[in-house]
Amino acid sequence: MTSASQTVLNRQSAPHYTWGEVCEGWRLMGTLGLSVIEERMPPNAEEVRHFHQEAHQLFYVIEGELSMEVEGEMHRLTPNDALPVLPQQAHQARNDSQSDVRFLVISAPGADGDRVPT
Fold it and tell me: Cupin type-2 domain: which residues (predicted)?
């Protein structure tokens, strides 16, 4: 049972945005203390390498394969794999596969305004 102040969110109802020209995000939760975003990254797309000053992040793959470079070490994540990224760790997510990748990015505290390009 949900109260009048609670809303079920999904990709159809969550706030949507485009980033990096071809990638998409759906903000499932966005508070100062916690951010949960579902992202879709098409083949050959990547984010800018960066770090967060304070945010701890967890990348969790829903579908496809995500390539994550963290502090020079490459990780390949497939469905149900999760990878934590600590504050100050330089990282970059990219899709080196031939199909879309869908994943969650969970940040605590929220990562808005906390990103520093490297």
Answer: 39-106
